[in-house]
């Protein structure tokens, strides 16, 4: 599907989202994501179910680079050099590139949800697309491009694990993986400012602010799924973390997590688990 096709109509949001996920070049994925998000935002109504059920996607469409390795194989670089800062920007850009696919997979995979669910995740995808574009431009300023450094596949692996449950997806992708960004980004921003890289720090400030709303969308729809399924949200979240995520490590950005829909009891449980 061409970007111009996606821009015409939101009559089939599942075809639009599938096309973004399948795109194998950076330019195509960005153009299709932007066009699909605009189409869904402009539509007063659209179908929320389809006779064509969602297909398993073991890997989304990706460019040839970056080369994907195990997380432990990624070298640790300091921020005192341009190369080290470029590696950090690349790592965050990789997260945002994957986040585009994750947001569109939330649209594509889970059928029969309220209209606002699809609007929320199309809006998240639009933000993630802009985040990647900002980081891509910053990489160019540092003399690099997306794909110049190795990266890992952990984000999409969680998407595969949660492909059969919207409730699990909302808990484990926005409220665990993306919420981790709320915890660690403030320290990254502080270190970047210490070494004089205000340009990168300013971009991460924007991303941090907008990621709070993304995690909040996960909290909102996780609670909705729990209410639909007749289960307690806080107890279910704790069970899912125990099974799929283990013990989450500090630091925890408590103010950002509260703004993103974490209850006082959930935060207390997370902190208690790390102290046990």
Provide a brief overview of the structure.
By secondary structure, this protein is mainly α. The chain has a single domain (about 5-50, about 75-275), classed as Ferritin.
Could you please describe the fold and organization of this structure?
With 276 residues, this protein is an all-alpha fold. The chain has one domain: Ferritin (Up-down Bundle), CATH 1.20.1260. Helices cover 67% and strands 0% of the residues. It is built from 11 helices and no strands. The termini are far apart. The model is unreliable at 1-8 (pLDDT under 50).
Q: Which features characterize this protein?
A:
single chain, 276 residues, mainly alpha, Ferritin, globular, disordered N terminus
CATH fold naming: Ferritin
Describe the biggest sheet? none
Categorize the overall geometry: globular
- The CATH architecture is Up-down Bundle
SSE class? mainly alpha
Tally of separate helices? 11
- CA-CA gap between termini: 51 Å
CATH class: Mainly Alpha
C-alpha Rg (nearest Å): 18 Å
Mean pLDDT: 93
Sequence of secondary-structure elements:
HHHHHHHHHHH
Number of strands: 0
Number of folding domains? 1
